[in-house]
Amino acid sequence: MDKFVKLTGVAAPLPVVNIDTDMIIPKDYLKTIKRTGLGTGLFAEARYNEDGSENPDFVLNKPAYRDAKILVAGDNFGCGSSREHAPWALLDFGIRCVISTSFADIFYNNCFKNGILPIKVGQDDLDKLMDDASRGSNAILTVDLENLEITGPDGGSIKFDLDEFKRHCLLNGLDDIGLTLEKGKAIDSFEKKNAASHPWAA
Questions:
Q1: Can you point out the beta strands (E) in the chain?
Q2: pLDDT greater than 70 at residue 179
Q3: Which of these, 2, 99, 91, 98, lies nearest to 41 by C-alpha position?
Q4: Signal sequence span per UniProt (predicted)?
Q5: What's the pLDDT at 198?
Q6: Domain ranges of the chain
Q7: CATH class of the region 6-173
Q8: How confident is the model at residue 137 (pLDDT cuts 50, 70, 90)?
Q9: Most buried of 75, 78, 113, 156, CB within 10 angstroms?
Q10: Backbone angles phi, psi at 134, to 5 degrees
Q11: How far apart are CA 119 and CA 98, in angstroms?
């Protein structure tokens, strides 16, 4: 998993509350278990018209936001079913950070397992960040995970809180497998001792 230390990029405004995982990645795209290729399906029902053409009014189809790395979204982002394809689709599109006032628990935890930083802020801070994100190509935010700080295009900054364990995992690019491999020597030592003390179980 790629490390997340500091991210600078365009932030796209998505001022919609209760964006569920079916909106993030519609069920038609759930036939694969691959983590790649899902970016085309991200917000598909909003991004595309019925004939498959792009909806020019959807934020990620606008020239200034096509390469957005950050989403600033309304309350209760990622609610609905627990599909892990939702963070997969965000990551495949290029989104590494989502900022909202709250997230559904399962989606929130799935983000950390896939190298995405979900940040919870208060409503006043979200309003400011939403305004920053509405500046088109000038909507550049810097998210500094080491210092737990978001800096806007005008130089103003907002602090945020994060569980220290989750912060450690993102800073070091550790998913569940990576965390296990960190204990590799201890696991090997245990297995050798266990095999020696229980030779009949070998």
A1: 6-14, 70-73, 97-100, 117-120, 140-144, 149-151, 157-159
A2: no
A3: 91
A4: none
A5: 73
A6: 6-173
A7: alpha beta
A8: confident
A9: 78
A10: -85, 5
A11: 6
